[in-house]
C-alpha cells in the first residue's frame, strides 16, 4: 500500500503541473482577488505534514484543477488569485489518505482550520491511489535516499546502503566520507549512538540494510542540532511497524563473504505500541594483501624498508532493540526505548620486512606474525515525554538518555629475525602482546519547545546537557625468549587515562515568511564545554578548563516557482575531538610506524556557506549547490620521523632509524570550494535513474609543518532500477572516487559497482533476492602516499570484494512508518566519520 501511495503522490504532482498550465490557457478561469490559506497536519500527532500536495478543483462532477501547490516544510499553503465561488479542496501525501472538503472562496482572504490527514491504516472516505516512493528525493533542506526501494540492499548492511546515498562515499578501508569530508555526524532515527561515534565502520555492519527505510543527508543543519559536524549530518531512518495488531519480518541471507539473519516483531493495540528487533551476522573470507615502501633520507645514503603482507579477517555482529510507546491522554505521550549493539572479530596477518641497508640493532630480514582482536558493545536507554496542544505545531518534549559504550582491542605478535616464513613459537626472536579497554558512560538531558506565532511564524528553543566519562586502560607485555621464559609487563608503556567532558547548550530559532516568496530562518546555539583529564600512572593530567562557543545559523530560501527554489545558508560549527583522538596509548603493532592520540587537542571551528538550487519538473528532481567550508586550527592526522618529532611525543618512545610516528594535531587551516549536484529522473514508468556527484578544490595550509597543498578531488555515484514485471525488479549501482590530496600526500581512488534483482512472492508478503558486488572483479586495490623532508611512504592494499548473496524475507502484518517521536541528537563530537583510532589498537 505504501508503494502505491508514493506513486500516486508523484503522479499527482506531474498532472498538477500540466493541469495548471492548461488552466492558465482555459477561458473562464480568469484571476480573481480571493485567496485560501491553511495548514496540513498528521491526524495522530498533530504535527505538520511537509510538502503535502494541495489541489483546488471545480465542484463535482467536474475534475478540472483551478490551482495547486505543495505545502512548505511547516505544512502551510496559500492559493491566491482565485475567483469567488464553491470549490473542492483535495489534500494528499505519501503514506496518508486523501482528504477532500468543500470550501467557498470569497473576494478576500479565507483562512481554513488545520486540515488533518489520516494515516493509511485508518479507514478512508474515498479510494486511495498508492505506488512506489522514488529511490531519491530532493527536499529543500536535505537529500533523501529511500533505501527500502533499492533491491541491491537486500541481505546487506548499513555499509552497503551508505555507499549508494547521495554525496556519500566509502573508501577502500571502509571509512565513510560526506562530500569528501570525514567530519560529520551519524544519527539513527534522529538520535546518536555511542557505538557509531566510537567505531562507525564496524558499527554499521551491525545494522541490517533490510531494516533501513531511508538515509537523509543534511548539509547545513539548523541551530536545533548540536554544533558538531562541519560536513553535515547523516540520519539513518529505520523501519518501524505501527499497524493495529501484530506484524513483523523474518529474513535470512547467505553470501560468499557474509551471512546474516534479521527479525522484527511489532504490536499495536489502542494507546500502546510495542516494537522489537533482533539481528546477527558473520563476516568471513576477508582475505587481503598489502605492500609498502618507506625511504628514509640521510646525508650519506637512503635507507629503504619494504613490507609485504597477507591478512585474513573474520568477524561477527549483533544488535537488538525494544520500544514501548504509550499515549495516556489526548495530548500526552510517553516512550521508553532500549537498544544494544555488539561486534567483534580477529585479523591474522603476516608481514615480511626487508631492509636494504644494514642498520645497528636491526635485522635486515624479519617476519612479524600478528593476531589482532577487536570487540565492542553499546547499550542505551531513552525515556521521552511529549506534550502537544490544541494549537497546531505547538509542542514541548523532555528526553533523558543513558548510554554505555565499551571497547576492547588487542594484538599479539611473534617476530622471527632472519626468516621469511613463520616458524615455531619457540623460535621467535621477540614476542609482544597488548590489550586496551575503552569504557565510556554518557548521560544526556534535553528539553525542546516549539511555539507557533501565527500561521507563518515559529519560534523554537531548547536546552541540553551532556556528561561524558571515558578513558583508556592499556597494558603491554613483552618477552625476549633468549632472556626469559615468561612475559613481563612493561612499566613504561601502559596507560591509565581518565577523561571527563561536560557540554551545556542552549538554542533558539525563529522562522517566518518575509513575503510570499521569501522564507527566513534565523537562529543560533551557545555551547559551553568543560573538560578534565588525568594520567593515573604518571600522576599528571590536564586541569579542568572550560570555554564558551557561539554558533550562529542563518537560512534564506526564495521560491522561484511552484517547483523551484533557491536557498542560501550560513552556519558556524564546532568539532570536539573524540576519545580516539585523545588517547595517548602508543600502538606498536606495526614495526616501523607507531600511532598514538594527543590529549592536548583543541576543538576546531568551521564557517560554512552554501547556495543551492532545487527544481522538480514532471518526474525529475534536480539539486545543485555551491559551498565554501573554512576551518581554522584544523585537527589533522600527521606523520613524522621519530628523530624529528612533532611535539608532544610520549616519553616512552625512543627515537630510532626508520621509525615513523603518526598522531593528530591542530596544525592546519583548510578551505574547500565545493560544487555538488544530484538528479533523480524517471524516463519511463518502469525505469528510474539517479546520478550525483561532487567536485571540490582543496587548499590545505600548515604553518607548523611549513606545508601548502592544493588540488582537486571528486566522486560520483549512479543508481538505476527497472521494473521488468509487477513482481520482478532489476537494479544496478556504480560509485567512483578519484584520488584526493591530503596534507602530506594523497589517497588513491577506486570504483565500486553492484547488480541485483528481487522477486516478490506470496501476494507481496515475501521476497527472494540475489545480489552481486564486484561480479567481474575479484579484488579491489587502493593506495596512499606520504612525503615529508625526512622520509616518504607508498602503500598499496588489496582486499576481497567479489560477493554473491541470496536472501529470503517474509512479512506478516503490514510495515508502515511510525509516528514521529522526539529523540536525542548528541552531534557535538569529532569522530572522524569512521571513528578511526589514532592509537589504542
From TrEMBL:
Q: What segment(s) does the record annotate as region Disordered?
A: 249-268, 815-841
A cellular component term from Gene Ontology for this protein is:
cell outer membrane
Any one Gene Ontology molecular-function term assigned to this protein's record = carbohydrate binding
* Start-end of Gly residues biased regions: 831-841
Q: Which InterPro entries match?
A: Beta-barrel_TonB_sf, Carb-bd-like_fold, OMP_b-brl_3, Plug_dom, Plug_dom_sf
Fetch the Pfam families from UniProt: CarbopepD_reg_2, OMP_b-brl_3, Plug
Range of residues in the leader sequence: 1-24
Q: Outer membrane protein beta-barrel domain: which residues?
A: 389-810
Q: Does the keyword Iron apply?
A: no
Where in this chain does the record put each TonB-dependent receptor plug domain?
A: 144-232
The alphabetized UniProt keywords are: Cell outer membrane, Membrane, Signal
Q: Is Signal included in the keywords of this UniProt record? A: yes
Primary location group: membrane
Localization per record: Cell outer membrane
Q: What is this protein called?
A: Outer membrane protein beta-barrel domain-containing protein
What is the originating organism of this protein? Hymenobacter crusticola
Amino acid at each position: 500500500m505504501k508503494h502505491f501511495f508514493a506513486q500516486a503522490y508523484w503522479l499527482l504532482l506531474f498532472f498538477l503541473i500540466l493541469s495548471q498550465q492548461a488552466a492558465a490557457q482555459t477561458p473562464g478561469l480568469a484571476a480573481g482577488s480571493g485567496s485560501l490559506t491553511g495548514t496540513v497536519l498528521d491526524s495522530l500527532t498533530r504535527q505538520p505534514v511537509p510538502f503535502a500536495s494541495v489541489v483546488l478543483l471545480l465542484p463535482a462532477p467536474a475534475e478540472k484543477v483551478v490551482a495547486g501547490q505543495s505545502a512548505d516544510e511547516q505544512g502551510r499553503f496559500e492559493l491566491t488569485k482565485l475567483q469567488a465561488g464553491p470549490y473542492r479542496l483535495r489534500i494528499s501525501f505519501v503514506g496518508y489518505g486523501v482528504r477532500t472538503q468543500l470550501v467557498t472562496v470569497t473576494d478576500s482572504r479565507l483562512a481554513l482550520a488545520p486540515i488533518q490527514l489520516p494515516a493509511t491504516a485508518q479507514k478512508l472516505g474515498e479510494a486511495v491511489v498508492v505506488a512506489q516512493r522514488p529511490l531519491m528525493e530532493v527536499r529543500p533542506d536535505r537529500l533523501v535516499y529511500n533505501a527500502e526501494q533499492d533491491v541491491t540492499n537486500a541481505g546487506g548492511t548499513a555499509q552497503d546502503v551508505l555507499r549508494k546515498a547521495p554525496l556519500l562515499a566509502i573508501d577502500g578501508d571502509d571509512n565513510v566520507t560526506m562530500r569528501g569530508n570525514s567530519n560529520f555526524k551519524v544519527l539513527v532515527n534522529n538520535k546518536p549512538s555511542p557505538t557509531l561515534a566510537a567505531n562507525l565502520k564496524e558499527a554499521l555492519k551491525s545494522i541490517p540494510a533490510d531494516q533501513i527505510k531511508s538515509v537523509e543527508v543534511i548539509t547545513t543543519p539548523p541551530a536545533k542540532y548540536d554544533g558538531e559536524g562541519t560536513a553535515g549530518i547523516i540520519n539513518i531512518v529505520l523501519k518501524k511497524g505501527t499497524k493495529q495488531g501484530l506484524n513483523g519480518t523474518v529474513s535470512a541471507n547467505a553470501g560468499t563473504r557474509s551471512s546474516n539473519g534479521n527479525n522484527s516483531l511489532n504490536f499495536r493495540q489502542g494507546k500502546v505500541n510495542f516494537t522489537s528487533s533482533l539481528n546477527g551476522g558473520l563476516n568471513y573470507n576477508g582475505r587481503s594483501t598489502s605492500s609498502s615502501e618507506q625511504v628514509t633520507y640521510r646525508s650519506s645514503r637512503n635507507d629503504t624498508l619494504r613490507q609485504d603482507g597477507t591478512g585474513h579477517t573474520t568477524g561477527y555482529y549483533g544488535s537488538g532493540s525494544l520500544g514501548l510507546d504509550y499515549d495516556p491522554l489526548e495530548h500526552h505521550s510517553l516512550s521508553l526505548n532500549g537498544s544494544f549493539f555488539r561486534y567483534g572479530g580477529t585479523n591474522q596477518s603476516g608481514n615480511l620486512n626487508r631492509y636494504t641497508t644494514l642498520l645497528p640493532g636491526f635485522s635486515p630480514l624479519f617476519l612479524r606474525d600478528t593476531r589482532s582482536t577487536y570487540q565492542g558493545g553499546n547499550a542505551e536507554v531513552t525515556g521521552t515525554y511529549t506534550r502537544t496542544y490544541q494549537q497546531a505545531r505547538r509542542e514541548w518534549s523532555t528526553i533523558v538518555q543513558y548510554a554505555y559504550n565499551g571497547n576492547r582491542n588487542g594484538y599479539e605478535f611473534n617476530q622471527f629475525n632472519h626468516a621469511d616464513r613463520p616458524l615455531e613459537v619457540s623460535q621467535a626472536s621477540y614476542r609482544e602482546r597488548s590489550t586496551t579497554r575503552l569504557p565510556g558512560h554518557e548521560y544526556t538531558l534535553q528539553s525542546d519547545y516549539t511555539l507557533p506565532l501565527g500561521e507563518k511564524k515559529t519560534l523554537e528553543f531548547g536546552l541540553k546537557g551532556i556528561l561524558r566519562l571515558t578513558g583508556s586502560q592499556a597494558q603491554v607485555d613483552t618477552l625476549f625468549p633468549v632472556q626469559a621464559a615468561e612475559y613481563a609487563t612493561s612499566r613504561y608503556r601502559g596507560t591509565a587515562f581518565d577523561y571527563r567532558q561536560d557540554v551545556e547548550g542552549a538554542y533558539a530559532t525563529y522562522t517566518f515568511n518575509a513575503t510570499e516568496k521569501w522564507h527566513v530562518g534565523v537562529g543560533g546555539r551557545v555551547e559551553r564545554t568543560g573538560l578534565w583529564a588525568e594520567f593515573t600512572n604518571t600522576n599528571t593530567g590536564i586541569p579542568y578548563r572550560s570555554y564558551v562557543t557561539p554558533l550562529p545559523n542563518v537560512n534564506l530560501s526564495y521560491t522561484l516557482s511552484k517547483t523551484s527554489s533557491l536557498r542560501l545558508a550560513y552556519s558556524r560549527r564546532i568539532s570536539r575531538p573524540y576519545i580516539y583522538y585523545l588517547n595517548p596509548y602508543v600502538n606498536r603493532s606495526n614495526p616501523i610506524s607507531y600511532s598514538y592520540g594527543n590529549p592536548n587537542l583543541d576543538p576546531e571551528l568551521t564557517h560554512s556557506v552554501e547556495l543551492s538550487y532545487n527544481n522538480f519538473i514532471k518526474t525529475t528532481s534536480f539539486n545543485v549547490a555551491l559551498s565554501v567550508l573554512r576551518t581554522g586550527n584544523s585537527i589533522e592526522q600527521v606523520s613524522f620521523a621519530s628523530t624529528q618529532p612533532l611535539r608532544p611525543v610520549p616519553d616512552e618512545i625512543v627515537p630510532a632509524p626508520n621509525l615513523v610516528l603518526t598522531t593528530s594535531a591542530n596544525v592546519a587551516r583548510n578551505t574547500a570550494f565545493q560544487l555538488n549536484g544530484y538528479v533523480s529522473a524517471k524516463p519511463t514508468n518502469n525505469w528510474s535513474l539517479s546520478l550525483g556527484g561532487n567536485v571540490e578544490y582543496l587548499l590545505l595550509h600548515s604553518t607548523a609543518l611549513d606545508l601548502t597543498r592544493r588540488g582537486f578531488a571528486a566522486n560520483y555515484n549512479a543508481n538505476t532500477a527497472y521494473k521488468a514485471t509487477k513482481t520482478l525488479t532489476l537494479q544496478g549501482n556504480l560509485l567512483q572516487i578519484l584520488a584526493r590530496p591530503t596534507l602530506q600526500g594523497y589517497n588513491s581512488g577506486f570504483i565500486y559497482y553492484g547488480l541485483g534483482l528481487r522477486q516478490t512472492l506470496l501476494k507481496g508478503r515475501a521476497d527472494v533476492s540475489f545480489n552481486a558486488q564486484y561480479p567481474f572483479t575479484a579484488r579491489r586495490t587502493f593506495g596512499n602516499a606520504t612525503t615529508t623532508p625526512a622520509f616518504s611512504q607508498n602503500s598499496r592494499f588489496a582486499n576481497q570484494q567479489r560477493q554473491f548473496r541470496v536472501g529470503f524475507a517474509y512479512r506478516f502484518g503490514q510495515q508502515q512508518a511510525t509516528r514521529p517521536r522526539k529523540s536525542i541528537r548528541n552531534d557535538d563530537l569529532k569522530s572522524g566519520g569512521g571513528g578511526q583510532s589514532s592509537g589504542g589498537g
